[in-house]
Amino acid sequence: MPPTIGRAHGKVALVTGASSGIGKATGRALLNAGYRVLGTSRKAQDGDALDGIEMVRCDVTSDESVNTAVERVLARSGQIDLLVNNAGVGIHGAAEECSMAAVHALYDTNVYGVLRMTNVVLPAMRRQGSGRIINISSILGLIPSPFGAHYAATKHALEGYSESLDHEVRTFGIRVILIEPALTKSGFEQSMSAPDRPLPVYEDGRANAARWLSEGMKLADTAASVGETVVRAAQASRPGARYTSGKMAGRLALLRRFAPASMFDKALRKDMRLS
Which family does the similarity line name (predicted)? Predict the structure, then answer.
């Protein structure tokens, strides 16, 4: 039996990218755990609500939008006890097929968006003397991702940033935690961008990677399971630095940790039909 989750009466959670997928499922899980949940979306209107989640307009790629959104959240709630940085985008294609403009846009959401939100929320948490920041990473923050190199790189960057920041802010009663899902039934894979300068030489590899992804989605974990992992990490009395979410992520993390590098490399290339 899983441990009983305590009720977070009076606590306020802010979840980015909460209009769908993992963000929406996380918002629901936090509501069920007793949090007051405010969620962000680029298209939200003030006063909107989504299944009990109070929505706030925010584009994490804009300093002004992030500042305004956090000000509105604090004006409504007076505090932010938990920040879940979930908003993210992806590109499916070979690294060489992606222009620097496309890569910059990817980093602007997946990495710089997290930095913007965190930097604006941290002063409020320091004043409170407490807080938790949960960053939605990926198992691709630990393993390679052929034809998803730039997305994996953003998650590797997020891992290094989060672990380092956690050491900097513990003195103030704040913890920073990573959540690492694998393939998740959230609609994310359908919203990934195609490379903006595709090259014929990579067509077969890109197609094989797409087939691998499609097959893997049949065994993917649910967005709700990620939300449950977030709640567990948010309420742990002694949180770990990272939590894998779901069976697939757990198996891959174990393989990456204990299997010889050559064995992991060979298995990855076989699964993805890379010659």
Answer: Belongs to the short-chain dehydrogenases/reductases (SDR) family.
- For the stretch 194-215, pLDDT in tens is 999 999 999 999 999 999 988 9
- Catalytic annotation, residues: 19, 137, 151, 155
Does any domain span residue 6? no
Tally of structural domains, the chain: 1
Average confidence (pLDDT) over 9-13: 90
Check: CB of residue 186 under 8 Å from CB of residue 22: yes
* Cα–Cα distance measured from residue 233 to residue 127, given in angstroms and rounded to the nearest whole number: 22
**Residue 26 in tokens:** 């996380």
As a whole number, mean pLDDT of residues 91-111 equals 97
Handedness of CA 261, 265, 266, 267 (dihedral sign): positive
Residue 4 CA: distances (Å) to CA of 191, 232, 235, 236: 35, 10, 11, 11
- Provide the domain limits for residue 217: 12-271
What the block records as the tokens of 89 is 């985008």
Average pLDDT over every residue of 202-231: 93
Asked if residue 257 belongs to a domain, the reply is: yes
**Is 7 within the bounds of a domain?**
no
On whether the pTM is more than 0.85, the answer is: yes
Q: Which residues contact 115 (CB under 8 A, 6 or more apart)?
A: 161
Does residue 2 have a pLDDT over 60?
A: no
CA distance 254 to 120: 35
CB-based burial, 195-224: b 16+ in 10 Å, e otherwise? beeeeeebeebbebbeebbeeeeeebbbbb
* 2 found inside a domain: no
Q: What is the mean pLDDT of the chain?
A: 93
Burial readout 245-258 (b: 16 or more C-beta within 10 A, e: otherwise): bbebbbebbeeeee
CATH code of 186's domain: 3.40.50.720
